[in-house]
Write a structure and sequence with these properties.
Distance between the termini: 46 Å
Number of domains: 2
CATH topology of the largest domain: D-Maltodextrin-Binding Protein, domain 2
CATH class of the largest domain: Alpha Beta
Pfam family, one: SBP_bac_3
Keywords: Signal
Helix content: 25-40%
InterPro entries: Quinoprotein_dehydrogenase, Solute-binding_3/MltF_N
Strand content: 15-25%
Number of strands: 12
Order of helices and strands: HEEEHEEEEEHEHEHEEH
CATH superfamily of the largest domain: Periplasmic binding protein-like II
Protein name: Substrate-binding domain-containing protein
Length: about 280
């Protein structure tokens, strides 16, 4: 699947790995944006974002968008990772990815539909529960969980926290492994003092932890790589009319989208880093 997706072999492989389709998926090879169904590319096992049972917040948002478009929702499933965009949007097997960072050159971005940040997670009764920056001297000599290769790693190194940090894998098969859940379990047990995760992931799993947790967006750490990101829908380049149509839908359903995100524990922030509270 590392070969160009225009080859027959690559296309067949892309179809073969997409759970829930099979030979019938070949009918979409030459398609453009469908006017009959809302076709979404998604990972079948990647909570809190998506799964085949429709339990993720991107599943719920896809349902909102489909309802607004008055189209039935249809998924093309493929595990996220290298080649995901090339073998989904790139082969026209679907028309949108529900979550993609703004500015990503591999897709055409819609307007952002939420903004979030990496977060620090501690037990509610921890003396670190009110820490709001990785530069806080109280973190010295503490054991911090960190996902290897993510932006917070730069700050952990810069502030001299790496020596005692516990790394967790960035790329895993989510069907069998969940570094975020392991990190939360380690915090609960006291094996580590705090953990740093991408907000939607950390916020979601903190709500399911065995002990009460505090989730604090790290918006004060600004003298290094960005810690907050705008998230958009990803579409194909050249499909401007489709992008504008999705922008209109995002605008119309923004408060409903916010409600979904907050219900999943996602810390959503405005452009001034203030928490957003959906209207009733």
């Amino acid at each position: 699947m590392n070969r160009a997706p225009t080859t027959v072999r690559a296309l067949v492989l892309a179809i073969a790995v997409a759970a829930g389709f099979g030979p019938a998926a070949a009918q979409y090879r030459a398609a453009v944006v469908s006017n009959e169904v809302f076709r979404v590319c998604a990972d079948p096992s990647n909570l809190p974002f998506s799964n085949k049972d429709g339990q993720g917040f991107e599943n719920k948002i896809a349902e909102l968008i489909a309802a607004e478009l008055k189209l039935p929702l249809q998924y093309f499933w493929m595990p996220s990772g290298p080649g995901f965009i090339r073998n989904t949007l790139g082969t026209k097997l679907c028309d949108v990815v529900i979550g993609y960072a703004a500015g990503a050159e591999i897709v055409q971005n819609t307007n952002p539909y939420y903004r979030s940040a990496f977060v620090l997670i501690t037990k509610k009764d921890s003396p670190l529960a009110d820490v709001t920056t990785l530069a806080d001297p109280r973190l010295k000599d503490k054991r911090i969980g960190i996902i290897a290769g993510t932006p917070p790693s730069d700050y952990v190194l810069k502030y001299g926290l790496m020596g005692k940090a516990k790394p967790y894998a960035l790329i895993v098969d989510r069907r069998y492994d969940s570094p975020a859940e392991q990190m939360l379990a380690d915090i609960a047990k006291g094996d580590i003092d705090a953990g740093v995760l991408w907000g939607p992931i950390g916020g979601y799993f903190a709500t399911k932890a065995s002990v009460p947790m505090v989730v604090t967006p790290l918006v004060k750490d600004k003298d290094g790589p960005p810690m907050a990101f705008r998230i958009t829908f990803g579409t194909r380049f050249g499909e401007s009319e489709w992008k504008h149509r999705l922008n209109d839908v995002i605008k119309a359903r923004q408060n409903d989208i916010d409600k979904v995100l907050v219900s999943f524990g996602v810390p959503i922030l405005d452009e001034s880093d203030r928490p957003i509270t959906p209207k009733p």
